[in-house]
Amino acid sequence: MEGESIEGIDWDVPFVEMAKLFPLCVRHKDQVEATFMRVKSRFCDEVLFGDVVDSYKMLLDKYRKVINKIAFGVVRFCCISCVKL
């Protein structure tokens, strides 16, 4: 399964064409569910928690920096406003 690719597939499919797949999925519900579970399981097996943790820490650090800048700006604005009064 690794390294699989689907050649010759036009992934830019209009919604109307996708809607035609729904009745087919209903008729073959068991096969669709089984395929979905295989894909889901494979995806979950390949996702590494460690990769997510590093990205989350980086995002959290950026968030904290922005919040500190906003808080400092609000305090500074209030101090300048109070002095002018």
TrEMBL record:
This is Uncharacterized protein. The lineage of its organism: Eukaryota, Viridiplantae, Streptophyta, Embryophyta, Tracheophyta.
